[in-house]
Amino acid sequence: MGSRRPITRARVSTVSWRSGWRLSEPVREGTGRSLHENTADTHFVAELKARAELFNRDLFNRSLPLAKVEFLPSAAVRQLGSVRTNRDRSAFVMRIARLLDGPAGERPVEGSRFNLRDEVLIHELVHVEQFIRAPNEPPHGPWFLERMRSIGARPRACPTVQLKVRGRWLYRCPAGHEVVRLRRYGRRRVSCRRCDPRAYNPRHRLRLVGEITSAGGAE
Question: Could you tell me the residue range of the domain that residue 67 belongs to?
Answer without folding.
Answer: 15-30+37-151
